[in-house]
Design goal:
The complex is a heterotrimer. Chain A is α/β, with parallel strands linked by helices. Chain A has 20 helices and 16 strands. Classes of the chains: A alpha/beta, B mainly beta, C alpha+beta.
Chain lengths: 535, 167, 494
């Protein structure tokens, strides 16, 4: 595999301007994540201390093996919802190493509204369990939740992928032989009680931990019985009498030590065999990514430069280099794993879709995981293209993506608009993980375009009534739409609603993908099979 | 959660990570590349960064005894489960432990006997000095673990008392 | 020179390092060495070296070694013609010496009468004083029990209360104030009763910062007595010796001549035969008789090293009836020897005895290094016996050379599994006052930094933690369990 020859001028004004812009975005992201992860009102932290509880970050530090990475998912979930009062949606999820094993962690953040489940909290936990199911990842639950947030129960209770799905996924994990351990560090009420009950192993802290389908207030209201949380469903009740929990612990540290020891008993999973060689750092400096991504989303850039700063040794074997240049396809190694990369260098034409389809089939045939680097405004439109079957070719690519058995990973590097999102393995196509870059945008069409279309509609409406508008009036109609659209297509908006698994600083993409790849290989890779390609 | 070793009564946390060709020791905020190579009998070569040291090592259970630079040290591995275990496993028992190694010269109670806090239970001897072991609380003698003439090590359990539920 | 010994086989009624050391000489002389041992000592070097080993029993291990009748029975059964009692145990038990004689066995030591005389500290003191030899101001209870407390007061403070039947530094108490005298006398009495079966006391003026100087003497059955020069044993804890050396750095040649002549005079007056040691307190240019030990002493090797004589051999020859093979003028000490007692104890914690398995043992070797050891790898050090493990004797042409040899040897002494005082001994060696020979019996109290465990340097701490981590399975296993990718990424966070 040959090294990519970079043709980037790292001293050009453009590069430097891009770099300044993207570094600022990355810094803003870090700051925002830092605040979401660690800043809490003093009052809430004191309450935790009074209750003898550790802050969730401290619990995680004790849980995870020192000196190992933690890929946190959807840190900024709910950042644009609930008036920003529920940082991280009150849950921390991510992939880490516990006693040498890759696990998915699901930890309540009791410092946020007592760890109550908001609709986005439920969505985040469901997503974590979905990832666990798809990748056969063992789970560690750190339970400390006040239960469902009643005022918003309509958005978290009844539907198929609402709260019940957590428990369904837990049951599936157990059915699949993928172990889970729950550490009960606070209350597990109503539905929440099922998290430890459905975990193969559970640890409960004496004093603070409690499991009950109905808490003391509910019990009092229902039957008039007066009982404390501990008497109702505390450590000794469940470890000595009911058998609902397995291990009693005197304090949080002991509970976590027990859980780590439980995880240490689990079998090491058989990993799916894919090609692998000793990892090598990229030849080019990943920090140069800041200078490559343009400040203006409409400006094109060469994805080869991005790939060169992500893959081992910056080596890349390009597939069909002369054909369909707007879709870059090729092989590389990332953290040692052989991967097939599809990346956008322009709109998708017929040939691009065909090339992509063919390449996806190749990768499935030789068991090569797929990485999609999105920067797509869409498929080419126009009479000529339709006649040549662009819709059909797009369908082929979607069919290939959907039928792909090798794990897929998607990074929205820049734009992700319209049907291009689908062909490039958007969220609906079950990439094992999907990440966004800070400046990326995702919507049915670009904000400018959408604003123009909507304004155009309005203008025509007014014209029918014989009204003419000045430039300012047009702007007055167009600009709010543009602002709104920009907001709703931003990475922050997407991540708030968990349309993705988190926003990454571009330089972190390599490590994130490495961890994701390793986690995905706990699931065997089935031989490929597809639906009918409309040839 | 890190590992812990006790050395001279102090607990030290550390972590060991694997890297190609050896290991890395994580202690305080430092990371040190380390290697331990056997050199026959109890002798080993410890390599920290590029510095080589002769060490003698002997282990029994969780105790690691090390001779380094002419001095002998003992470290004891403490498993996290033991480190963080709660104080009162069972509220009902109290044990009397030997403050130093020695031998029992007189026992003044028997199993089943009710004792009061401060009541002498047995007299032990060490270094030609006599020490009286007294009951730490009111209770019943559940078991005497040593008899007259027997020797014991420091911290050995001598007597177990059953607390009578009084504070 | 072939010798016709009156006994072919010698039974060693002792254990540990001294048993091993005696066995060595017995065998070197072509005699058969028989050792008695309690079951707990089955793995010790002496038992393995001996030509025959006989197990003895007792309510406690110590009781077994004190059972004279059982030991004599063992000697008879093994065909041993002589019994060497070593030191401690029955070595100064006149009753046992008599029983040996009655059983037709040669007791390797002085006569029962001399043992009796010198064993009773009060009688011994009186005997020495009557001979015109220097003794410290004192009050003896026996002289007039009624006035004892009053006379004790008159001795002046500080004073030392000693049990009349005591020895080896046990049961002694220093009293500095008159107000404490009454209570201390009571306690000393009860301890004397407990440990020596005799509650009688005597009281002696206590010399502050005294130096403990003793003289080795040797007499034969034909009336010849020589001294084998002095040893200084000032470095002590709880009145027990830790370091002994010969010659004493404190004495001028005149003082040496005086004190050695005094010792020989005392031994001669007592009609002493076999090996013994006269102990003195030396301070302010004066010396006083302390006591006489009618046995081989622990620290006899330093005398052997500077004189090139095997004292155990001399004991056996005297016991066999031979006249001494040398005269006083034939004895010329050369060079310097220092003995360090390696104890199973923790000097930093009040010299508390320690216990544990001997998991590894590597003793230093080399020119000028002698190790008399009583332990072997695989043994358990228990609280059953005195905590002395071994003696390290370093020799050299000068005191400085001997110290240098000792320093190297101590750093090479490796015993893993039971805490020893080896580190403490090295710190002692490095102390400037010790190097200058400014030692006295209060040395360790005056310099508590020697006993204190020095703080660990950061580098040393890291090396120890690295060693412990790499040697411990759970730590290594946890490291090996982390997948290579995650180990390489380290503590990365997105």
């Amino acid at each position: 595999m040959n090294r990519i020859e970079s043709t980037l001028n790292t001293r050009s004004a453009d590069f430097l301007a891009n770099r300044a812009h993207n570094q600022a975005l990355a810094a803003a992201l870090r700051q925002q994540q830092e605040a979401v992860r660690h800043q809490r009102p003093e009052r809430d932290m004191q309450r935790l201390a009074r209750q003898n509880k550790m802050f969730v970050r401290e619990r995680l530090q004790q849980l995870l093996d020192p000196g190992t990475p933690f890929l946190e998912l959807s840190t900024l979930a709910a950042n644009m919802d609930y008036d920003g009062e529920v940082p991280g949606a009150g849950v921390v999820t991510g992939i880490g190493i516990v006693s040498g094993r890759e696990v998915m962690v699901n930890a309540s953040d009791a410092s946020v509204k007592g760890g109550a489940w908001y609709p986005l909290s439920v969505k985040k936990i469901v997503r974590a369990t979905d990832i666990a199911v798809e990748n056969r990842l063992p789970m560690v639950h750190l339970c400390d939740s006040a239960g469902g947030f009643l005022p918003l129960q309509a958005d978290l209770f009844a539907d198929r992928h609402y709260a019940g799905r957590i428990f369904r996924n837990q049951s599936m994990l157990s059915k699949m032989g993928v172990p889970q351990v729950a550490i009960v560090l606070g209350h597990c009420t109503a539905g929440g009680a099922y998290v430890p009950a459905l975990s193969d192993y559970s640890v409960i802290v004496r004093g603070n931990g409690a499991i009950f389908l109905g808490g003391p207030p509910l019990v009092k209201a229902a039957t008039g019985e007066e009982v404390s949380a501990d008497e109702l469903g505390g450590c000794d009740v469940h470890t000595r009498l009911s058998g609902t929990a397995d291990y009693p612990a005197s304090n949080e540290h002991e509970a976590i030590a027990i859980a780590r020891d439980v995880v240490a008993q689990w079998q090491r999973p058989q990993k799916a065999r894919v090609q692998w060689q000793e990892p090598e750092a990229p030849y080019y400096d990943p920090a140069e990514l800041y200078g490559i991504v343009p400040r203006d989303i409409k400006v094109q850039f060469d994805m080869r430069e991005v790939i060169a700063r992500m893959v081992d040794g910056s080596r890349f074997h390009e597939y069909q280099p002369a054909y369909a240049p707007t879709l870059l396809c090729g092989f590389a190694h990332l953290w040692g794993y052989k991967v097939g990369i599809l990346a956008n260098n322009g709109v998708l034409f017929n040939e691009s879709a065909q090339k992509g389809t063919h390449f996806i089939e190749l990768c499935n045939q030789n068991r090569t995981p797929l990485i999609f680097l999105q920067n797509i405004t869409g498929f080419m439109v126009g009479r000529d293209y339709e006649r040549r079957g662009i819709t059909k070719d797009g369908a082929k690519m979607i069919m290939a993506v959907a039928g792909s058995e090798v794990p897929k990973f998607t990074v929205v590097c820049n734009g992700s608009f319209g049907a291009g999102n689908y062909g490039m393995s958007g969220r609906a196509f079950d990439p094992r993980f999907l990440f966004m870059w800070p400046q990326s945008q995702i919507s049915v069409m670009g904000a400018e375009q959408a604003a123009n279309v909507l304004a155009e509609v309005k203008l025509r409406q007014l014209a029918r009534n014989g009204e003419q508008l000045s430039a300012e009036q047009i702007a007055a109609i167009r600009d709010p739409v543009l602002q709104d659209y920009r907001r709703q297509s931003s990475a922050l908006y997407s991540t708030s609603r968990l349309w993705d698994d988190g926003i990454l600083d571009p330089v972190d993409t390599r490590n994130a993908l490495g961890i994701a790849l390793s986690a995905s290989l706990n699931q065997p890779i089935a031989p490929p099979s597809y639906g009918v390609f409309r040839i | 959660m890190a590992h812990a070793f006790i050395l001279n009564g102090d607990e030290h946390e550390l972590w060991l990570s694997h890297e190609r060709g050896g290991y890395r020791l994580h202690v305080n905020a430092l990371q040190l590349p380390v290697k331990l190579l056997p050199r026959g009998d109890d002798l080993h070569e410890l390599i920290v960064h590029d510095d080589s040291h002769r060490v003698f090592i002997a282990q029994r259970g969780d105790e690691v005894h090390v001779h380094l630079d002419g001095e002998t040290h003992s470290l004891r591995y403490v498993h996290s489960l033991s480190r963080f275990a709660g104080e009162n496993k069972d509220e009902g028992e109290a044990v009397a432990r030997a403050p130093m190694p020695g031998a029992v010269i007189a026992v003044s109670v028997e199993a089943g006997q009710q004792v009061q806090r401060g009541q002498p239970l047995m007299v032990i001897e060490s270094m030609k000095m006599e020490t009286t072991i007294s009951a730490a609380c009111d209770g019943t003698v559940q078991a005497l673990h040593v008899s007259v003439g027997q020797t014991f090590d420091r911290d050995a359990v001598l007597v177990t008392l059953d607390r009578n539920g009084t504070a | 020179m072939q010798k016709n010994w009156p006994f072919q086989s010698v039974l060693i009624a002792n254990r540990g390092e001294i048993a091993s050391r005696i066995v060595r000489t017995v065998q070197r002389l072509g005699l058969r060495a028989v050792v008695v041992h309690h079951a707990v000592d089955a793995g010790t070097p002496a038992v393995r070296q001996a030509d025959a080993a006989i197990e003895i029993h007792g309510a406690t291990p110590v009781a077994a070694y004190l059972d004279g009748a059982q030991i004599i029975e063992a000697a008879r059964g093994a065909g041993a013609g002589a019994i060497h009692p070593g030191y401690g145990f029955l070595s100064e038990n006149a009753g046992f010496a008599r029983a040996c004689a009655q059983a037709g066995l040669v007791f390797v030591g002085p006569s029962p009468e001399v043992i009796d005389l010198m064993g009773d500290k009060v009688r011994a003191r009186a005997f020495v004083a009557q001979g015109g030899f220097p003794v410290a101001p004192s009050a003896i209870e026996d002289d007039d029990p009624a006035s004892f407390a009053e006379r004790a007061l008159a001795v002046g403070f500080p004073l030392l209360i000693k049990p009349a039947a005591g020895g080896g530094g046990k049961g002694m108490r220093v009293v500095r104030e008159a107000a404490q005298l009454g209570a201390e006398l009571e306690r000393a009495r009860s301890e004397g009763q407990r440990y020596f079966g005799d509650g009688r006391l005597y009281v002696e003026r206590f010399v502050e910062n005294p130096r403990h100087i003793e003289v080795q003497v040797l007499g034969d059955a034909h009336g010849h007595v020589v001294h084998l020069f002095e040893r200084e044993c000032s470095v002590q804890r709880r009145f027990q010796k830790i370091v002994e050396e010969s010659p004493s750095p404190a004495l001028t040649p005149e003082q040496r001549r005086d004190i050695c002549a005094t010792a020989a005079g005392i031994a001669r007056r007592a009609g002493y035969a076999n090996a013994g040691t006269v102990e003195f307190i030396f301070g302010g240019g004066d010396f006083y008789f302390l006591e006489m030990n009618t046995r081989l002493q622990v620290e006899h090797p330093v005398t052997e090293e500077v004189l090139g004589i095997d004292l155990v051999e001399q004991q056996l020859r005297v016991a066999a009836g031979e006249p001494l093979g040398f005269a006083q003028d034939d004895l010329q000490p050369r060079g310097h020897a220092i003995e360090f007692r390696l104890y199973a104890e923790d000097p930093a914690r009040g010299y508390l005895p320690t216990t544990g398995p001997v998991l590894a043992l590597h003793e230093p070797r080399g020119p000028g290094v002698r190790i008399d050891s009583g332990i072997a790898a695989g043994q358990e050090v228990t609280a059953a016996f005195d905590p002395m493990l071994a003696k390290l004797i370093a020799s050299g042409a000068t005191r400085t050379e001997a110290m240098a040899t000792a320093r190297r040897a101590l750093s090479e002494y490796v015993l893993l599994g039971c805490k020893t005082n080896a580190g403490f001994l090295r710190r002692l060696l490095d102390h400037p006052a010790f190097a200058a020979g400014e030692i006295h019996t209060g040395f360790l109290d005056a310099h508590p930094e020697v006993a204190a465990e020095p703080p660990l340097a950061a580098d040393t701490l890291h090396r120890l933690l690295a060693t412990a981590a790499l040697a411990s399975r759970p730590v290594r296993d946890a490291a090996d369990a982390v997948p290579a990718l995650h180990a390489a990424m380290g503590a990365w966070r997105n």
